[in-house]
Amino acid sequence: MAHEDDPLEHERASWKPSPGLAVAVPDPVRNPGLPPHRERMTDKDPASMKRAVRGVYTLFYLSIAGSIWAIAAYMLFPIESGRIVDIRNNNLFIGLGIALALLAIGVGAIHWSKAVMSDREFVEPRHATRGRDTTREAAIKAFADADAESGFGRRVMIRNSLIAALVASVVPGVVLFRGLAPFNSPEKPHAGDPVYLLEHTMWKKGMRLAHDPSGEPIRAADLTLGSAVHVIPEALAEVSHSEGYLDEKAKAIVLLVRLLPEQLVESEERKEWSYNGIVAYSKVCTHVGCPVALYEQQTHHLLCPCHQSQFDVTDHAKVLFGPAARPLPQLPITVDDEGYLIARSDFNEPVGPSFWERH
Description:
The chain contains 9 helices and 10 strands. By secondary structure, the protein is an alpha+beta fold. It has 2 domains: 42-120 and 133-180; 194-343, Rieske Iron-sulfur Protein. It is elongated and about 95 Å long.
């Protein structure tokens, strides 16, 4: 704050402009108003309006044709044949159909707004946004005005063709999801049954546990305390890179961990599922199926790197943290006459993410 005797303050307070000095006074910005309205050809010529309306709903019907063609291409060029030409044609013609369906909707909507909808300029005044009765009435009126200006209620052909085009544009995507599911066949009668596919893996009674990916069998005596080993069925190594190999491997992958026997908390029915402190659990996370392969040796926790679910190896791989809904399935194991680790049976429950059809 300036002092009372400050000469500079006295000088500022006593200053007045001289009579001959021009002082600039800010001039408020004037509202230029709306430019003169220019009528469109569709506003002046009824025949031109009819042509524009026909063009709009023709584009929407063209969109429907594109959606139908995408579905037809999915059936005409099945990728299940495995041939490169079918896969190429499948991608090409389905893509063209979907592109036509979406492009025609977009162009039709733009042509509708530019040539058919009301073209009058208007000013929208600002007002309070409190939820009063008058505000509700104004909102209802705004919808009514929008309907009247767009002609959505009057232009029956445009409205119906747009609704049909929007519905049809979704159908190709729904149909394409069918390709994600395997097909049943005489050779694979359960190919389309997710319960059967996840409930059964390549593990069978007496099958040796082998290193992933070498396929070398594992002796129990070779596992050191605290070790964690990635495991696949020995039989899986013999069919490496054959048809269905990756699908079978994805379900059968196991993590083998050795602890002190006294560290294990085992229920009565699972006391025979481990061998001398060695336990085997599915590596497929029960959340969304990511590989659970990060083992914390000091805490005996398994961590899923995708969404941080944690499982306790010492206590039936129960969930400690994260979005996983159930423990990791345990593979019952023992040793054979030569000391190699073998499976007592397949998993006793489906592997992988939880889903509503799971028993």
